[in-house]
Amino acid sequence: MTDGPAAKRQKASTPDEAPYKLIYWPGLPGRGEHVRLAFEEAGVPYVDGAKQEDAVPQVLAQISTDNLAEGIVPNLPPLAPPILEHGDLLISQLPNILLYLGPKLGLVPGDDANAVYRINALALTALDGFSNEVHDCHHPICTSLYYEDQKPESVRKSKLYVKERLPKFLSYFERVLHAQEERKAGSWLYGASLTYADLVLFQCLDGTAYQFPRAVQQLKDAGGHKRVFALVDAVRARPNIAAYLESDRRLPYGEGIYRYYKELDVVLEDSVEEEKKE
Ligand SMILES: N[C@@H](CCC(=O)N[C@@H](CS)C(=O)NCC(=O)O)C(=O)O
Questions:
Q1: How does residue 15 score in pLDDT terms, banded at 50, 70 and 90?
Q2: Boundaries of each GST N-terminal domain copy (predicted)?
């Protein structure tokens, strides 16, 4: 480390009108779906690299261990998609991409400079509880192993997730919405208008309901998280979102974050004691 690179870095210029491009794996919604939903709700055009013929090579070129991001200083090579390209800017990490896009797409209120950090906290929490943990229910040991090689652990984790974590995260978002209601702030997670946190929560719960249909239905029927489920329905009914969900741009779930395995479709009453004794 000899010189002071920060001072020498070439300045990237990203005009707002530069085209947006999502680089992502083809054939499944995945984490890229949160980026798509933001563009779709905002009605802002974007190029979806996942729908292009060379989608896989596009991703591989970025995440290759040979990629040193040469010539695109000060961008850095990404570890994994989703990746957003906007003019000279190339960034990865989904919550980071949403943090960048939120204000540009009008999905963060413009009258409070701190709003984006509160909205980011909501998005991160939804992704923790309804994306990362749900994914780990079918890959509890390691992502690099096949599901079939970690099945008993997946069943155990799913039972515990459904019994303890799913209700905890749902209750958290119910509490946030209750607080908003008490303040007469509206029925979205933050303030009077929809933000990208609402879109993230929608997608996360849509996927969680795909993986755990029985448990999610049970919790919905129990009526303890009415505000959360009403929010999911309200997002689904937004004109741009509804049109998108109807379109062939919306891909079905498959072998991605959210997967349906019958043996993991557990309910809250399923015993976890047996596994605990082993
Ligand atoms: N924390 C990252 C996770 C990225 C990630 O896990 N991407 C998946 C696709 S959704 C992937 O290709 N991972 C490859 C790997 O982790 O080796 C984010 O939020 O963007």
A1: confident
A2: 19-109
Question: Where do you find CATH 1.20.1050.10 in the chain?
Answer: 115-277
Q: How far apart are CA 209 and CA 216, in angstroms?
A: 6
Contact by Cβ (8 Å): 199, 106:
no
Q: Does domain 17-104 have CATH number 3.10.310.30?
A: no
| Ligand 1 pocket check for 14: Cβ under 6 Å | no
Residues 180-198 have a mean pLDDT of 94
Q: Which CATH fold would you assign to the domain 115-277? A: Glutathione S-transferase Yfyf (Class Pi); Chain A, domain 2 (1.20.1050)
The pick from 35, 79, 259 for probing ligand 1's pocket by mutation, whose C-beta has the most ligand atoms within 8 angstroms, reads: 79
Cβ of 29 closer than 6 Å to ligand 1, yes or no, is no
The closest of 220, 238, 118, 236 to 174, measured between CA atoms, is 220
Is the CB of residue 60 below 6 angstroms from any atom belonging to ligand 1? no
Q: How far apart are CA 216 and CA 103, in angstroms?
A: 32
- Centre of ligand 1 to C-alpha 93, Å, is 8
- Asked whether 171 lines ligand 1 (CB < 6 A), one says no
CATH 3.40.30.10 domain span(s) along the chain: 17-104
pLDDT of residue 73: 67
Does residue 71 have a pLDDT over 80?
no
Q: Average pLDDT of the chain?
A: 93
Q: Which atom of ligand 1 is nearest to the CA of 32?
A: 10
